[in-house]
Amino acid sequence: MHKRLWLRALGCGLAAACLAAPTHAQDFPPKKAVTMVVGFAPGGAADAAARLIAKKLGDNIGQAVVVDNRAGAGGNIAHQLVANGPTDGSMILLGSIGPLTIAPHMMKVGYDPFKDLAPLSGGVHFPNVLVVNAGAGIKTLADFVAAARKQPGAVTFASTGAGSASHLTGELFGQQAKVEMVHVPYKGGAPAMQDLLANRFTGYFAAPPTALPHIESGKLIPLATTGLARPAYLPNIPTVAESGYPGFEALNWYAFVASAKTPAPILDRWNQEIVKVLNDPSVREQLSKHGLTPHPTTRAELTDFMQKESVKWGAIVRDRKITGE
């Protein structure tokens, strides 16, 4: 009698374990190629970071990691795609400050960054650099502000899309400098840079990977950087903060997220793999050459960081009455 009861209990235990297996013992890496979605066109900062990191991730996990550029709506299209995407770990997103912490305050988006997307790890962060065409006749930040005050609305600034970091950086600067500038949105850093080189607008709070080659060639003039300290790759260019706007800081950043429906063991494993890559000396060196600082975090740390950024930029959106139109 006791033996039959024991066998029955053992059978129930094995059945429960089998039922639990799909949730707690997911295969990793996924059996198919991994897609790393990027919300901007090829050639910009997000694309540069994604391709460097994807290559090393693929080498480490023994599975291809393919970068998929889904430009449009300031990166919101890519974020919605991943929020509704595969939940087996085969699709991750190099998310960005705009769609994750700014756009939801400005417009109706098809996802909730804190409910539909799950944090994996911080990615990279960096200050933007305000650049102008060498033929624009503007040499300093003071010149830029003077031009904006002389003809309100005549000075234009580009961004990688409505609600992007470059957009809100321009709005924050306009607020502090008390100038009105016209925003010109693009679908990524590369197309914006092409038009700046053609002198089709006044200035651009650009990401370092996009701007540095043209600064070095002399085609663009850097006026100021947007962090609190001067970056090592532009040691002679003042920050906005030290140019008459104390405390000004607007960091750009990218972070890794996935569909919130992905099982926690897979999310945790992706955190481990991404952190490993971002701490790799060779990867850090390559990112540094592009002006990007690796920023690996725990999943909880990324959530906390995103919440603080959401509060900060939400206040700017309301104060400047910014919409996605």
TrEMBL record:
One Pfam family matching this protein: TctC
SUPFAM superfamilies associated with the record: Periplasmic binding protein-like II
InterPro entries: BUG, Bug_dom1
Keyword field: Signal
Superkingdom, natural source: Bacteria
Signal peptide: 1-25
Family: Belongs to the UPF0065 (bug) family.
Protein name: Tripartite tricarboxylate transporter substrate binding protein
